[in-house]
Design a protein that fits this description.
Shape: rod-shaped
Distance between the termini: 50 Å
Number of domains: 2
Order of helices and strands: EHHHEH
Number of strands: 2
Number of helices: 4
Radius of gyration: 24 Å
């Protein structure tokens, strides 16, 4: 499973919230993130930020694409061939 480092994104959001003079909360952080981050990761990051003004390294799982374009094309071509053969068989009856 591939992961994506979201540490910089979290740091950017926390710095932005603090620069506005607001107290960072889980809700504010989650609302401003451009990528989905699980709640436990946000909570851990927020606790670390409040105690040491530091963002720990955070990685989240990257959703995998179902199939590559080439695989999808190959599957569709096979499906077209199967349907064409079936249609020809039905037409012969």
């Amino acid at each position: 499973m591939q992961t994506q480092n979201v540490t910089e994104e979290l740091h950017r959001v926390l710095t932005s919230i603090s620069a506005e003079g607001k107290e960072p909360t889980v809700a504010l952080i989650k609302a401003r993130l451009s990528i989905p981050v699980p709640m436990p990761a946000i909570i851990t990051t927020l606790k670390s930020w409040k105690t040491s003004n530091n963002v720990p390294k955070v990685e989240v799982a990257v959703p995998q694409t179902a199939h590559s374009v080439e695989e999808r094309i190959a599957q569709l071509e096979a499906q077209v061939q199967a349907l064409t053969a079936r249609l020809e068989q039905l037409e012969r009856k």
